[in-house]
Every structure is written in C-alpha cells, then in structure tokens.
Design a protein that fits this description.
The structure is a homodimer. In chain A, a hairpin with a 6-residue loop joins strand 2 and strand 3. The longest helix of chain A is centred in the first third of the chain and has 19 residues. The first copy, chain A, is α+β, with helices and mostly antiparallel strands. The first copy, chain A, is built from 13 helices and twelve strands. At the A-B interface, strand 4, strand 7, helix 8, helix 10 and helix 11 of A face strand 4, strand 7, helix 8, helix 10 and helix 11 of B.
Chain lengths: 343, 343
C-alpha cells in the first residue's frame, strides 16, 4: 500500500536525511528541494532515487557536505561567478540566481558560472528558476566520459545535458532538458537488468562496433543523438561549460572519480536572456508572439516538451506525492543510519 | 575546360555583378566576399550558385540593394543592435562585428542582433569572423516554415541553422554549422531532379505520413534532426532569433514571401563569449585545454567538423578557384544583363 506525502512533508523528510548524514543546512535544503521536485514531477530517475547517490558521493569524499558556496569577482561585467566550494551545485545556483537575474535585466543577457561543484540534478529546475524571473535560459554542463564522438570508437564526451526555457505568463514555461547522447546511461542499465536488447543506434562495444547488448554497451560507449550534429553540440558543451569556465571536462571528471557511480564533479554554465530588453523598440510583445508559435505547434497535434511533467506536478500539488512502502522504508533507513546506510 | 580564378579575381567579378544589378557598394562588397568564401571552401551550395537567388530576391522587391545598415541603441548593455535597413544581413554583420567583439571582451559575453535583413548565407563565415577576435560564438536564425515539429504533420519551423565556433591559435577554428532539419531543402530538390528516393526519416507527405518520395516531401514537410531533441532546438531558435529579437519567425517569413524560392527575410542572433574572461582566475589556459579535447577526438579516428572545408580552402588559396566554362558563362551573363538575366 502506498502512502501520500505533501510536498512539505517530503522535502522535510529528505532534508533531515541529508542533515543526519552530516551535511549543513545550506547544502541539505536546496538538495531536498530539487530531489522533491523530481519526485513531484514524476521524474523518478531524478527523485528520491538520487538520495543514495548523494550519500555515496559524500561517503566517498568526492563532495563536501559542509561547503558554503561563495560569490567570486563581484563586478565582472556580464559574468556572475559562484564557487560551490566543493559542495553540490544546487546551493551555489540558489546563491547566484538573484544576481544573474539582475544582471540579465540590466545588460540584456548575462551568464552564471558555477565552479567546483558536484552535480547530479536535472537542469530543468534551474531553467524554471530563471524563467520565473521573466528571462529565457540556456543551461549546460558536462558529465563523465561515456559517449563516443560521432565517427569515434571510445568514450570521451559526457551525456552533456542541454536545457532551455522560455517564460510564459500565467502558465508553466516552455522547457526542454535532454542528454546529448541518444539515451541516458540509466536507460541502458535498465535494459541490462531487464535482460532486454537495446534499440539500434544507442551504443558501440569496446571494439567500437555497433551493439544492442547492454552489457557490451556499458563496456563500450554510448552514441550522441542525431549523429554528427548531436556530437558537435556535446563537444560545444565540453568547450563552453568545461574548458571555457575553467572547470573539468567529461574525461577529466572520469579521471578524477575513477567511476561513473558517483555524482560528477565539474562546473556549469547558465545563460540568461531578457526578452523584454531584446525586443525593446521592435513591433510586437515577445511573450504574446511566443504563444502563437506554441499554439501552432500544439494545433497540429505535436506536443510541447515537459507537458507530462507539468501534469504530474499539478496532480502532486493537488493530491500529494505517492510513495511505495519500499520507498518509505528506504527513507526511514537513510534517516536512521546516515552514511552507514551506504555499503 | 575549367578556368582558375584567384580569390581576388572571383570576389571582384561577383561584386561587379551585384553593382551592375543596381546594388550599392556597401551591399555588394560583403555579399561578394561571403559568396566567394563559399566557393573557396568547396561549398558549392553557398558559392556562386547563390548569385541567382540574390538577384531574384532583388528583382522581386523582397530586399533592398541600396540599404545602408545602421547601429541602433548605442549603449545597450550587452546587446549590440544593427538594423540591415531591409538589405542583406552581411553588410549589417560587418558593421556590428567590431562593436560586438569589444563588448564581449569588456563584459565577458555579448549578443549582436541583426534585424530586418534578407539572409541566404551559411553561418560559418560569421562564426569564423567572431573567432578571429579570439572569441567563441553561437549563431542562429530562422528561415521559412518547411519543417514539421516532432509529432506534428505540417511545415512550421524553418531549417533553422545553428552554428558554433571556438578560436584556435595558429590554425583554423573549431566550427560547426548545421540545419536543425535532418536534411537541407536543397538536398531533397537534388534527389527529385535525380529521380532518386529519399532516405527514410527525412520527410512526411501532405497528410503527415512518412515518405521517401521527393515530390511528396516537397509538398509535405521536412523532419527535424534527432527527433524531439532537434525539434526542440529548432523551436528555441524561433524563440530566440525570431520572437525575442522582435523579428519574423519562419511561418511569418513564409507568409511575407509567399514562396521558398527567395532569400528569407528575418533577423539573426550572434552570441560572443570571451574564453579569457570566463577562465580568468581558474587553472589552465582554456585554449591549450581545448586542444587536448580536439586531440582526443581526432586520436580515436573521429573528425572535427569543417575539416573538409578547410582543406578545400587551403587548396583554393594556393591554386585559385576552379570554375567550369558553364559557370563562367553564367557569371558573364549576369554581368551583361543585370536583373534582366532573371526570368
């Protein structure tokens, strides 16, 4: 039998788990919010499932649970710089966001760099936090070397997510957030556990040959989405959100961690743009014009991205979040044992 | 028998064609340079082949050949705004570029908006012009509604090119530039002329059903690359480089022109980022670190984008550009007849 928790109850429970594991409130709060948001939106892969990975990374000493993020270079033009101090990205993002929003409104566009952070979350919570300020957002970060560049044979690029958001008045924003690999690594793992073959085009084996065997794929490399085009975007993300911001690229992250079972440690790039500033002096309200585009997309039966997630959110907000007894027992165990819950 | 022209001879000949057709020097010069650069790089689809389309658009009155681009909003934070005055984008881009470069170096990143322009060129010449200033660049623009959004049935998005560049010391930059449709419209046209079937996944017919018949595809819609992911990027480009900058979206362009045989009229967005500013205070030289990434890509047998183009450029610069007698005769005809060469 399932139990239903309100969002407040869920956030509180997750936060207590992180505090019990020795994290400070500055880290635990934002982490609890982003994990609860995943669960709320029906993204099980970014919900409470992630708690174990957070604790594992903490126990392995590959992230600081007591870090205090800090701003760097107070007046740095259109660049807002936040250092996570070796902690998770989430607290650093929350610290920098108001400054980013001010700067983007002031200059028309601005970028936030988060350095020295562990990063395990989806990018859509950050995209939505920027759109809530009436700004458009592009967000990207590397991960660890698990994807072969198009035409290549070995893992080099990360699954490097790319996310974008556009604010909409009186409703949820237009948001997409996807891996630049064909599939997420977790999907290959799920196929392996279920004993199922992979679709063609997802992966290559250790010899660089196409494979549909999940085991061979995990020992080989994933492929970028859209062939050489997706590969190029994945490379752009390594350059902009790794090299350019002076933080680790996906191969460097894998070297640093030595495994893909811990949260990757790197940086993140958030670009915020002000439609009001960009459209000033031109005909038409950009927000009203965007609605015409969305109507035309939906009018021909195509879907806007994130709609399933927003529907799940509406349900969760009305009815609470459903957890199974096994999930609740796991939360209780984490709360009772702290880091000792991790083998 | 072919003839070989130096780049100077080719540029001069193309420029004289545009002057003869009634364009001013401010429009004709940049157009001649970008078309000659296409020919030089072996991109026949963006070389002298484009002259006819330029003249056709001019004759149809859908672009001004005597426009003078002008800067707008002199001090506008990180936004550099150039109005093409109804002329081609190229002159406007050249006008705004030095300001964009200064602003990006000063603030860390900056955006150039080109408004009210006809646009027919590849984006890589602009990307390379930005990287020549030691800056990274993202460039995007809409085109006309010929691509169905993923899950849709009708043309709505454009082939919306997305391009990126990263400067490299002592060698050609890292550059990609691709349509966010699976294929360019011209490729479908080439299949039609050759009586060949299209590969699967390129297009749908007027009823929204998958088709490999080029005729049915031209009457239906092209598909975005990479399924819903490419569709999302194409939509982002409509929003940022159409709606946000107060210029036409792809469906609006098609309404305005009533045809896809003229150069589309819309705007363009160029974002320039300073790796030096972004990396300041962090470990490692971003340009040296990028080379490690490029070596790792090439070291496993994968190619960097644009390498074929750069090889053709090296040949053209050493040996000149080869044109067939038919191509030369066509240039002579344009020069003799001006706009009367267009039916």
């Amino acid at each position: 039998m399932n139990s239903t928790l309100s969002m407040t109850e869920l956030e509180d429970r997750v936060q207590r788990i992180f505090l019990r594991a020795g994290m400070n409130a500055m880290q635990a709060g934002p982490l609890a919010r982003v994990i609860s948001a995943g669960e709320r939106d029906g993204c099980k892969s970014h919900g409470i499932y992630r708690i174990e990975g957070v604790l594992r990374t903490l126990k392995a000493g590959k992230v600081s649970g007591t870090a205090k993020p800090f701003a760097e270079g107070a007046d740095n033009g259109a660049i807002v710089r936040v250092n996570a101090g070796g902690g998770f990205s989430n607290a650093a993002f929350e610290l920098g966001l108001p400054v980013l929003a001010d700067r983007a409104r002031d200059l028309g566009l601005a970028a936030m760099v988060v350095n020295d952070c562990a990063h395990f979350a989806a990018l859509w919570p950050e995209v939505e936090a920027v759109t809530a300020h009436g700004l458009a957002a592009m967000v990207m970060c590397p991960s660890y070397a698990t994807v072969a560049p198009a035409g290549g044979t070995k893992p080099l690029l990360g699954t490097n997510p790319f996310a974008f958001g556009w604010p909409r008045q009186g409703q949820q924003p237009y948001v997409f957030d996807f891996a630049t690999s064909v599939a997420a690594r977790g999907e290959i793992e799920l196929h392996r556990r279920a004993g199922k073959s992979l679709p063609e085009g997802w992966a290559i084996d250790a010899d660089g040959q196409p494979t549909t065997d999940p085991e061979a794929a995990l020992g080989g490399a994933m492929l970028p989405f859209g062939g050489h085009k997706g590969s190029a975007i994945g490379t752009m993300i390594e350059l902009l959100a790794g090299v350019m911001i002076g933080d680790l690229t996906s191969p460097e992250v894998l070297d640093f961690l030595g495994t893909t079972t811990l949260a990757p440690f790197h940086g993140e790039l958030v670009i915020a743009l002000s439609p009001e500033r960009f459209a000033a002096g031109r005909r038409g309200d950009p927000f009203a014009r965007a609605e015409l585009l969305f109507e035309a997309i939906q009018g021909q039966g195509a879907r806007l991205p994130s709609q399933r997630r927003f529907a799940a959110r509406a349900r969760s907000q009305a009815e609470g979040v459903d957890l199974t007894q096994a999930e609740l027992a796991q939360l209780d165990r984490f709360l009772a044992l702290g880091l000792d819950a991790i083998a």
